[in-house]
Design a protein that fits this description.
Elements lengths: L1 E6 L5 E8 L1 H4 L5 E5 L12 E2 L5 E8 L3 E8 L3 E3 L6 E4 L6 E6 L4 H5 L6 H35 L1
Antiparallel strand pairs: 1-2, 2-5, 3-6, 4-5, 6-7, 6-9, 8-9
């Protein structure tokens, strides 16, 4: 079992990959992801069976929320994700629900788009121009001082 998350550049969407390993699937033919994001519909989100017997599905969720979920095997057996972000007591059953937290990490919140190549070239040109401007006045000043010294 595992959850992996990736966040959109604008930090508004989180793509979560939900996975059930072959041991947890215990030979199941069908596994469904069931949770708050699909109104607990037991057949709305089927998971794809992989050649090794594991199951997975990607789900795009809004960020900065917590979603409770569980896996339903063969329409009868409920299991939790062993690597869930946390577990919350179910209001309907005498059990816990897995929970995925889509809070945007600080690094994603502050990440800026990389500057385009043309913007980088413009910045480089400005820097080189500034360097030239700074060097020229010093040279001119030295020349004027030298001229004054020869006139005396």
């Amino acid at each position: 079992m595992s959850l992996s998350k990736s966040f959109s550049a604008d930090g508004k969407k989180c793509t979560v990959t939900f996975s059930v390993n072959p041991n947890a699937a215990a030979g199941a033919e069908k596994v469904f992801l069931v949770g708050e994001f699909n109104s607990w519909n037991e057949t709305a989100t089927p998971m794809k069976k992989m050649p090794d017997g594991s199951f997975s599905v990607k789900k795009q969720l809004e960020t900065n929320k917590k979603y409770q979920f569980r896996y339903l095997l063969n329409g009868k057996d409920w299991i939790n994700d062993w690597k869930a972000d946390e577990y919350i007591r179910s209001e309907l059953a005498n059990d816990d629900n897995s929970c995925v937290d889509t809070t945007v990490p600080a690094a994603v919140k502050t990440a800026k788009k990389p500057a385009s190549k043309s913007a980088a070239k413009t910045t480089a040109k400005k820097s080189s121009t500034k360097g030239t401007e700074t060097t020229e006045p010093k040279a001119t000043t030295k020349k004027s001082t030298a001229k004054k010294a020869t006139k005396k």
